[in-house]
Write a structure and sequence with these properties.
Protein name: DUF1905 domain-containing protein
Strand order of the largest sheet: 1-7-4-5-6-3-2
InterPro entries: AF2212/PG0164-like_sf (IPR037079), DUF1905 (IPR015018)
CATH class: Mainly Beta
Radius of gyration: 13 Å
CATH architecture: Beta Barrel
Pfam family, one: DUF1905
Number of strands: 7
Distance between the termini: 14 Å
């Protein structure tokens, strides 16, 4: 994804995928603490309730849309099964993430 001037926030980070026994899809990329403030600020305009934040994300060559889940003062990026399969990733995998809040 190229830089998008219409984005409310755009961050890039590395994360180790985790498994959490909450709502499906169970696999998440934790957003590093250093980006939480910027995302929370953008979420004031983007969030559509329950604190979830609509985003576009890219892991590897795979782009997808989803919503960040608020968790313990931070955010978790759900990584869909289709993304896990196309990128051959699973819990414990280290991934580079590009995230755009709209």
């Amino acid at each position: 994804m190229e830089h998008d001037d219409a984005a409310l926030a755009q961050v890039a980070f590395y994360a180790t995928l985790i498994e959490w026994r909450g709502p499906a899809p169970f696999v998440f990329a934790p957003v590093p603490e250093e980006h939480v403030g910027e995302i929370a600020h953008a979420a004031r305009s983007a969030s559509y309730g329950w604190g979830v934040v609509p985003v576009e994300a890219q892991i590897g060559r795979t782009r997808f849309t989803t919503s960040l889940f608020p968790r313990n003062g931070g955010y978790l990026l759900p990584v869909k099964v289709a993304v896990q399969r196309s990128e051959s990733i699973a819990p414990g995998s280290s991934v580079a993430v590009l995230l755009v809040v709209r």
